[in-house]
Structure to design on (263 residues):
């Protein structure tokens, strides 16, 4: 259990901007536990987002625009932009329309190209729109969905990490992949059931929850199918882009559900 908790803290150090002023062991056993706790990290992030929305929405005089902006900004600051960096690098590589080897070189280049900047602007602009309109009329299920967005995106990241070969033998993706095998993913379905069961009991909006779960499943299928084709496998940047892309689809799903299902 201690190793499990340390694995979670490793994730906090790598994937959030939370200040943890102590060293953690980076051996294979602890990195394996880190992979197993990817979804828990996402649930932790989602709980922060939902809690922040509740506090700002219920206990401040801020306008709805300001409330949406605070939540939007939190999604950037809490992660320290680590996944956004992967989104930009992967976008530069993909839109270069070069072969796989050249794309890997582009992702490794510390400079950001025009396509990376444009893709970031589009991503964050759309996210703000989705957050703003999905939280106009905040309902109980809205908080659940917000908690679920990073939970599901980190689940997709973990599955992709261990079921698609690495494109190179260096970097963050290779570090985690070398420490774990696909069999450690046995715990992911338990997380999903643990998340969904109380949600279904409390809310009983099976249609909305079902669509919300199908969205990241589609993202996983899409990314697994194209990671090898476009990049020769997964890298840290590809995983970061996957997280951002999955969360983009999930925010859009929540936005559409508020319009056409929960309106």
């Amino acid at each position: 259990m201690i190793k499990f908790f340390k694995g979670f803290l490793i994730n906090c150090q790598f994937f959030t901007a939370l200040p943890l002023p102590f060293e953690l062991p980076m051996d294979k056993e602890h990195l394996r536990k880190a992979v197993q706790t990817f979804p828990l990290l996402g649930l932790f992030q989602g709980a922060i987002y939902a809690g922040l929305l509740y506090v700002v929405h219920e206990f401040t005089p801020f306008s709805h625009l300001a409330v949406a902006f605070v939540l939007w900004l939190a999604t950037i600051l809490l992660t320290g932009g680590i996944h956004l960096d992967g989104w930009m690098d992967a976008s530069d590589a993909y839109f270069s329309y070069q072969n796989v080897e050249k794309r890997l070189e582009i992702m490794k280049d510390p400079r950001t190209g025009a396509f990376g900047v444009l893709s970031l602007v589009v991503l964050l602009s759309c996210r703000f729109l989705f957050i703003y309109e999905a939280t106009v009329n905040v309902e109980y299920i809205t908080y659940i969905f917000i908690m679920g967005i990073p939970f599901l995106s980190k689940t997709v990241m973990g599955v992709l990490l261990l079921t698609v070969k690495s494109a190179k033998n260096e970097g963050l993706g290779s570090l985690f992949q070398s420490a774990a095998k696909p069999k450690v993913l046995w715990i992911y379905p338990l997380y999903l059931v643990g998340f969904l069961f109380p949600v279904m009991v409390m809310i009983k909006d099976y249609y909305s929850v079902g669509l919300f779960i199908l969205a990241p499943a589609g993202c996983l299928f899409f990314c697994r199918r194209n990671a090898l084709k476009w990049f020769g496998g997964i890298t840290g940047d590809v995983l970061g882009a996957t997280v951002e892309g999955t969360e983009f689809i999930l925010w859009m799903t929540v936005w559409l559900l508020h319009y056409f299902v929960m309106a």
In short: Residues 206-231 form the longest helix (26 residues). The two ends are 43 Å apart (CA to CA). The CA atoms of residues 208 and 257 lie 7 Å apart.
